[in-house]
Amino acid sequence: MPKIRVLPDILASQVAAGEVVERPASVVKELVENSIDAGAREIRVDMDRGGSALIRVSDDGCGMSREDALLSLERHATSKLRTAGDLAAIMTLGFRGEAVPSIASVSRFRLVTRESDSVSGTEILVDGGKVRDVRDAGCAPGTVIEAKALFYNMPARRKFLRAESTEAAHVEHQLRLHALAAPNVRFRLRRDDREVFDLPAAAKAVDRVRQLLGTDLSRELIALPLTHGNGISVQGYLLPASHARKGRRHQFVFLNGRPVEDAVISRALAEGFRGAVADGMYPAAWLWIDLEPTLVDVNVHPAKREVRFHRPVDVRDAILDAVAVGLRPPAPIVPQRGVSAAGEVAPVRVSFQVPEPVLPDWENTLVTTNEPAPTKGAPNFRMVGMLHHKFVLMESEDGLVLFDPKAAWERIYYEKLLSRGDGVLETQGLLVPVLLELDPRDLDLVLRERMALQEAGIEVGAFGGNTLQIRSLPACLLVDDPRPFLGALMDELLHDSVPGARFTIDRLARVLAARASALITLRFSEMTALLGGLFCCELPYCAADGRPTLTEFSLRELDRRFGIGKG
Length: 567
What we know:
single chain; eight-stranded mixed β-sheet; elongated
């Protein structure tokens, strides 16, 4: 008996499905790509129970004959490749011919299709890769594909599906990507017989961005002019640096109409904002890149999410040029010269005022030597002054002490947030609830963790669409403008390298304390009271993240540094 055997066709399709079909969103991606390739002007997606019970993709594309419909269920059957040379110049979204048979092998599958010039259409029923029925059908031109009971015949794969709301959020995200990639197509999404969105076809890409972004942020969009170079063209839109976030979820990149993720492009965007965006932060961007198909390999990832550029430096340079022009400040208005009655040009006189130098306010900075200790448990420090309005200089019995007020506030906030004597944290309701527009996947995660957030004093709820409503904050936090504070807070909570620790009460307290302490305005007159509050904490010598609140330099160390006592 030979040890090596050829896999049966159904088993081979199920193995291929493991690469192509990861979750319901993968099914939507593959089917919607086929609809776009078929020239559809309207695409509708229906899903039930997050897509595990039903995914239906309907389009008004070119449709298929009975022969083609049956061939589409064969592995590696495709209308998009003819020769090996075609693989080096792919302009379609699908090309491998694996998606439809792979989906049919792991679901109860139904395909209904009709060409526009045909009297009747074709209906094909497939169960787990086995064709059950082929018959004529009355239907509109185009194609409808249904995948029911996804992974019903692969229970090990089915148990790895996430909560219905999570899977639905991934489907919505995937369809939004394709809506941005193909703005000239109408996209409709229904979930459990409820309409999620209906995006009409847009004349321009920016109109699609505005449909998905909302009115407020749309006003801040920065247009990138069409930029050409070495077979590459780039155009798109950015948001100002103030909207940069930790994750890349708000970067949408489309290469020859295909949604892609690529480190070269992300680095180029970050480099274009260099000096305006902190390290580890990523600007919000929508980029459409057209590239000669011979200069990119789109066949390097099973799900076609990643690509490989043959000349990545050219791609980087094109993006940098486009971003540089887009972010360039407008040219200053040059004043016109006056013309005298005699026709002579009179010079324009410009007066300059030199501001007076600002001297340190030593009278309010220095404190008398006999100042009492701030509290009973605090060391006997004498306040001396402030260094660069950042650190407080203090004199101790043994030398010099540097005090970090921001770290002190962080420690105080952190312990207040954790010290809930009766288990209930005092909160303050926001006069006007804050509304934040989130990625559908992020919104799902926040809503599932709403009880953990409520325990930390933050009350959240759904507000419709992908909008999160925040109604309260912990009472101990002093936040004048809650919207940017909460936006940055959610960004940090959602983009964490340790997903399981995002919403523990300890981490919530640490992130809240760090964010709130960063907003504190430092006043030297308040440092004595702050020091007293710090030494009422259990661990006064370190902030919530472990960095020191005070650092002491002894007289012996200072003498050594200045060479005092030698010789």
